Amino acid sequence: MNCRPRCGACCTAPSITSPIPGMPDGKPAGVACVQLDEEMRCRIFGRPERPAFCGGLQPAADMCGDSREAAMFWLGALEAATAPAA
Q: Which of 4, 36, 42, 72 has the smallest number of Cβ neighbours within 10 A?
């Protein structure tokens, strides 16, 4: 499966705890990565500075659903289910 054009849900919904160029402390859930361009594509895709988390997140029908909104919901639910207890 290929990424949906102009989606970027996987670069927005989950938290990322490892450094990202321009975000040395990672990013919180629900915040768009600074590496997303105007077309909602990753500027560092395939580059060594891209976090391993990002490389491991592959598009799939259950995750992406039929819209960006569905993907945001699914990834947000996964984020909540796997967040450390407060």
A: 36
